[in-house]
Amino acid sequence: MTNKHLLLIDDDQELVELLTEFLTSEGYQISSAFDGVSGLEQAKTEQYSLILLDVMLPGLNGFELLKALGDKHHTPILMLTAKGDDTDRVLGLELGADDYLPKPYNPSELLARIKAILRRIDIIQNKDKTLSLEHNHVLIKGATREVFCHNQLVLLTGTEFEMLHLLMENLDTIVSKEQLSEQILGRPLSAYDRSIDMHISNIRKKLQLHAELDKIKTIRGVGYVFMSGDESDIE
Question: What three-state secondary structure class fits 233?
Answer without folding.
Answer: helix
